[in-house]
Amino acid sequence: MKILTGLAVLMVLTAGSQAFAASHQTTIFIEEQDTNKDGQVTLAEFDVERADHFKRMDANGDASLTEAEYVGEYEARLNKQLESVTDAEKKKEQYQRQMRQAKVRFGVLDTNKDAAMTFEEYQVSGHAMFNRHDADKSGIITAKDVELLTEQKKDKKGDDFVNP
Ligand SMILES: [Ca+2]
Ligand SMILES: [Ca+2]
Ligand SMILES: [Ca+2]
């Protein structure tokens, strides 16, 4: 229950700043996670990519992430994203807000609050995200899920979310 509450908080926290239509997010998700380029993402495929990403974040290789490791890797990606923002004030404001949120995310994902994020803790958010993209709950994310989420959006049933 505690985990579910945490994730709900996480989604509320992040929804304001980078909310996109769920269907659009799912298209991006497929583009980013479809490592064998067959146009769909299986849970196994996703897990391999998550494990890989976790390893990249784990700078000292002790199979656990500190806040500095988690936020540091995010900061590099954020700076890249912000390269296209030309307004210096805006850039600074977005940088500060996103970095603040990254720290909050770390706190939420570290469910047992020991200041270390294990792969298991990281995967709770990963699988929650996978399930939200997987609209027909088939265990594979395909163009059909994008269609379903687009339909839900039209009926105002869909909701927005971000990649944790
Ligand atoms: Ca694939
Ligand atoms: Ca580490
Ligand atoms: Ca922990």
TrEMBL record:
Is Zinc there in the keyword field?
Answer: no
Tell me the keywords, alphabetical order: Coiled coil, Signal
Note one Pfam family from the annotation. Answer: EF-hand_5
Q: Which InterPro entries match?
A: EF-hand-dom_pair (IPR011992), EF_Hand_1_Ca_BS (IPR018247), EF_hand_dom (IPR002048)
Q: Which residues form the signal peptide?
A: 1-21
- Give the matching PROSITE patterns: EF_HAND_1
- Asked if the record carries the keyword Signal, the reply is yes
Task: Specify the protein name.
Answer: EF-hand domain-containing protein
